[in-house]
Amino acid sequence: MAAAPKEATNAIGLEDICTEKQEPPKGQKTFTVEEAVETIGFGRFHIALFLIMGSTGVAEAMEIMLIAVVSPLIRCEWHLQDWQVALVTTMVFFGYMVFSIVLGLLADRYGRWKILLLSFLWGAYFSLLTSFSPSYIWFVFLRTMVGGGVSGHAQGLIIKTEFLPTKYRGYMLPLSQVFWLAGSLLIIGLASVVNPTIGWRWLIRIASIPGIILILVFKFIPESARYNVSTGNDEAATATLRRIAKMNRAAMPEGILREPANERRGRFKDLIHPKYLRTTLQIWIIWLGIAFAYYGVILASAELLERDLVCGSPAPAGEEAGDGSEESRSPCHCRLFGPSAYQTMIISTVGEIALNPVNILGINFLGRRLSLCITMACTALFFLLLNICTSSAGMTGFLFMLRALVSANFNTIYIYTAEVYPTTMRALGMGTSGSLCRVGAMVAPFISQVLMSASFIGALCLFASVCVVCAISAFTLPIETKGRALQVCM
């Protein structure tokens, strides 16, 4: 296949990275999946893809954010100490970490769609079981299983990435943050109504509904054509591309689909191949740091609101949490969220989309590496600013900006990771990155909910330092994926 000069500068030639190239019959026109995707262009199929696969973010956000709004209630019901509350979140991400690698391997071997469906079935089942937890131990175990199911949701982003034309990836993938925001706001809104009335168990049951609904609509999205050609199933890939072309009312490229099949799929040692070793190690550092900062912000917000901390000092003993109503204190003298606390959580959560337009511009014009470096450095700055003695409004403003920045960080690294690896190891690359990401998420609760109580400035300096390391790592990444075609194999 001949490549245009411009593409040659932006992409690694497939002839150089594929070892099983097959020559087409003489005189027969051929095309690749990449050429077909670019020729068909963006249309109605991609809108449906964006809505359905993007909605996986709603279910994921509700399951992950659930712990932040349920923690005060289980603390009271089971008389938990700080470390026990932190352990719940840590174990959720432990489940995520373990299953993320396993599901990534399976997705590269057996398909993205199958693993996505399996992960939603798994997550919905154990989430519903969690609502019947008879004790703290059972609650921790079942939420760990939920974390394992949620880890497979990343396959939705991979499917979107592999179907989107190159020039649209930098715009459509960051917009998926809207769905995470919707899920976060939905669970906070539901918590403000359900928790004080029918309790946290019903909140968990209601939070399982979006995931169950999505299971029913997954049938409208096909398996990735890029995955099919990587397994040698050109017929299925061609049928999928024709379906997309028909929905978009566009023409298919002339000729037949012809790409090399590759049996080397989903192998961990490919991630540490000399070609990708430095990239992989730096991506792992960045994922770990971003998750540490992201969930640190979320849990620190909940901790600040639950304890009503301003300027690092506990609220006076006579003051009530939230709006000071009688209902804002439990019979066991634990502080629960009042209406004003939920309001502050909603305002800070909206911050997740505040920088989306700027983030999209940065990704597409500055590139993935520089954009991520800038937002990570700003995240470090705002962690330090959080230590400034200020009013509740000022604290809300800082939390708002932090949520905006950590969200932008996640947007960028998700896109970069999905683009930098070839199809034969893309799901595994995302899976291992997601696994390392959860290591940061596992540590975050003990910093936000335990260390912060002992040393407020110490916790904030730790968060800021990690963000600085990530900013340096992002700036020095060896590959820029802006404008680069997705690679098929290595």
Automatic annotation (TrEMBL):
<keyword id="KW-1133">Transmembrane helix</keyword>
<feature type="transmembrane region" description="Helical">
    <location>
        <begin position="281"/>
        <end position="300"/>
    </location>
</feature>
<feature type="domain" description="Major facilitator superfamily (MFS) profile">
    <location>
        <begin position="49"/>
        <end position="482"/>
    </location>
</feature>
<dbReference type="InterPro" id="IPR011701">
    <property type="entry name" value="MFS"/>
</dbReference>
<feature type="transmembrane region" description="Helical">
    <location>
        <begin position="454"/>
        <end position="477"/>
    </location>
</feature>
<comment type="similarity">
    <text>Belongs to the major facilitator superfamily.</text>
</comment>
<feature type="transmembrane region" description="Helical">
    <location>
        <begin position="47"/>
        <end position="71"/>
    </location>
</feature>
<dbReference type="Pfam" id="PF07690">
    <property type="entry name" value="MFS_1"/>
</dbReference>
<dbReference type="InterPro" id="IPR036259">
    <property type="entry name" value="MFS_trans_sf"/>
</dbReference>
<dbReference type="InterPro" id="IPR020846">
    <property type="entry name" value="MFS_dom"/>
</dbReference>
<dbReference type="GO" id="GO:0016020">
    <property type="term" value="C:membrane"/>
</dbReference>
<keyword id="KW-0472">Membrane</keyword>
<keyword id="KW-0812">Transmembrane</keyword>
<keyword id="KW-0813">Transport</keyword>
<feature type="transmembrane region" description="Helical">
    <location>
        <begin position="83"/>
        <end position="106"/>
    </location>
</feature>
<protein>
    <submittedName>
        <fullName>SVOP protein</fullName>
    </submittedName>
</protein>
<dbReference type="GO" id="GO:0022857">
    <property type="term" value="F:transmembrane transporter activity"/>
</dbReference>
<dbReference type="InterPro" id="IPR005828">
    <property type="entry name" value="MFS_sugar_transport-like"/>
</dbReference>
<feature type="transmembrane region" description="Helical">
    <location>
        <begin position="171"/>
        <end position="194"/>
    </location>
</feature>
<dbReference type="Pfam" id="PF00083">
    <property type="entry name" value="Sugar_tr"/>
</dbReference>
<feature type="transmembrane region" description="Helical">
    <location>
        <begin position="345"/>
        <end position="363"/>
    </location>
</feature>
